[in-house]
Design brief:
Layout (H helix, E strand, L loop, with lengths): L1 H18 L12 H14 L4 E6 L5 E3 L2 E2 L6 H7 L7 E10 L5 E8 L4 H7 L4 H9 L4 E3 L15 E3 L17 H11 L4 E2 L2 E2 L9 E2 L2 H10 L4 H24 L6 H14 L4 E2 L4 E4 L21 E5 L2 E3 L2 E2 L3 E5 L6 H19 L7 H18 L40 E4 L2 E4 L12 E4 L2 E5 L4 E3 L8 H7 L24
Helix pairs in contact: 1-4, 8-9, 10-11
Length: 494
């Protein structure tokens, strides 16, 4: 029996070694040339005699022996294309010389191949796959990091993101992320107090935990042609999801059904994930900015439905919100609030061009909304200040993060930002009761072009007229039914 088991294991190992990359994948992933270019640009920005050190994301536990699906750290993905955990990347400003005399300026320590583990949790590239598929000349299994001969004290600056000390130590695994971080801390003389590692002061000695973020913000805030192609797909998929949901919405559906409908459409277009937890809030639930329960079992024809859902495609996330009347037609009060939010959004979109400041974007939206609310009789004391009816900002970058890295001074060509004003009127607000329970957010994704802007999320209607017209159309999901649970009974044979 033991011999038979050994043969099976050996055959599995051989199969995985031969077929690790022999799998069907989409053909529109970013190329290894793209990632090499990103590393080269970062290298050019690094200060003299420095090294940047980046770690893969942590595996997060859901419960017991079940983990959440792994999602790579966006900065690590941006520079490598590597989607696995338990790895560390070093990028050097100047050429380094290995013991064998070979020179290099970057090195990736990757999760090692393991046939038994791959049988359970999926294929791994290993160091050889990193070389062949991701274009690294220097790549080793993570176990080699402990033996890697590097003296961080010889560098003027060691750039990295400070640790939050929230990574699990996997028992009997000396190459997990926890151990990689601990080995780095030892090699870099990371400060300790009574044996406990502490958050360090910026640029204390040669350890710099502030500069890397700003360098990557400069890069990630301006999208390349290749990135824009993926973002367009993510945004278009998201906008189609919203448009199809509008046709399917009717009283009696649950918030969760509408969430599932849109997320199915994302998957139909091969989007790997949602860009963030989906928000589907009917009536007063829409007044909760990050409402994610989506638990209301039956929406009513008197309510507005706020839907903030978007797809993540090959790592790039859209961010789109639409608000629609469950009945298919806005009430007079709903229409007034909706068109005020739309007017503020249009005012902002119209000024989106290179040179416009984010401060101007925020003030344009806020003044338009506050002035309009005051005209409708709301107790607005200042047209320029935030208030409970419009408590959030209007714009942020999107990309590998839904709130992406980027600078917030002024707009530049090839930035992609959201424009998302909103008005929220919870029950018992200090205003006429006729407004209570109305919540409206309209969020679109906008590309800054050479002289102006391009609305990427155009496929999801925004005007009152267009929304009401679309909601009259039949839906693909109109005839979709499932068995009633209480009528599903076992067949008992006598």
């Amino acid at each position: 029996m033991k011999i038979k088991l050994l043969v099976i294991i050996l055959l599995c190992q051989l199969s995985y070694l031969l077929n690790a990359q022999n799998i069907d994948l989409p053909s529109d992933f970013l190329s290894k040339k793209f990632y090499a270019g990103r590393r080269e640009i970062l290298r050019e920005k690094l200060p003299a005699n420095s090294v940047a050190v980046l770690f893969a994301n942590a595996i997060r536990n859901r419960a017991n022996d079940v983990d959440y699906f792994f999602h790579q750290d966006p900065d690590f993905l941006y520079l490598t294309g590597y989607k696995e955990p338990n790895s560390v990347l070093l990028i050097f400003k100047e050429l380094q010389t290995a013991n064998n005399g070979k020179q290099y300026n970057e090195i990736l320590f990757a999760q090692a191949r393991n046939a038994r583990a791959e049988m359970w949790t999926g294929r791994r590239l290993g160091s050889e796959g990193v070389k062949s598929l991701l274009g690294f000349e220097q790549s080793f299994d993570a176990v080699e990091f402990s033996r890697y001969d590097i003296n961080f004290s010889t560098f003027d600056q060691v750039l990295f993101f400070d640790f939050k000390n929230d990574v699990r130590d996997v028992p009997k695994d000396s190459t997990d992320l926890y151990d990689l971080i601990e080995k780095f801390k030892t090699k870099a003389s990371y400060p300790k107090s009574n044996g406990v590692t502490l958050a360090i002061e910026p640029t204390k000695n040669n350890l710099n935990t502030t500069t890397l973020g700003s360098l990557l913000a400069d890069m990630r805030g301006i999208k390349t042609k290749e990135e824009l192609e993926l973002l367009r797909k993510a945004v278009t998929i998201s906008a189609i999801g919203h448009a199809e949901a509008m046709k399917a919405i009717r009283p009696g559906l649950s918030e969760r059904e509408i969430q599932g409908l849109q997320e199915y459409i994302f998957k139909k277009y091969q989007a790997e994930d949602q860009g963030y937890p989906s928000i589907v809030g009917a009536g007063h639930n829409g007044c909760i900015l990050h409402y994610m329960e989506n638990y209301k079992p039956s929406i009513t024809n008197k309510e507005l439905l706020l839907m903030d859902l978007a797809a993540e495609y090959h790592g790039y996330s859209a961010d789109v919100t639409r608000t629609v009347p469950v009945s298919g037609k806005f009430s007079p009060e709903q229409k007034l609030i909706y068109e005020l939010v739309l007017r503020a959004q249009e005012a902002v979109i119209n000024i989106c061009k290179p040179g416009t400041s984010f401060k101007e974007i925020e003030s344009t939206a806020r003044i338009t909304i506050n002035k309009g609310l005051k005209e409708l009789g709301f107790p607005i004391t200042s047209e320029t200040d935030r208030n409970l009816f419009y408590p959030h900002g209007c714009s942020h970058h999107i990309g590998l993060d839904v709130h992406d890295r980027g600078n917030y001074d002024s707009l530049k060509q090839n930035m992609v930002i959201t424009v998302e004003p909103g008005i929220y009127i919870p029950e018992n607000s200090k205003c006429d009761k006729k407004w209570w329970g109305i919540s409206v957010r309209i969020e679109d994704d906008v590309l800054i072009t050479e002289r102006g802007h391009e609305l990427l999320s155009f496929a999801a209607p925004r005007t009152v007229k267009d929304i009401e017209e679309l909601m009259k159309q039949p839906s693909t999901f109109d005839n979709f039914t499932l068995p009633e649970l209480d009528k599903v009974k076992p067949t008992i044979k006598q």
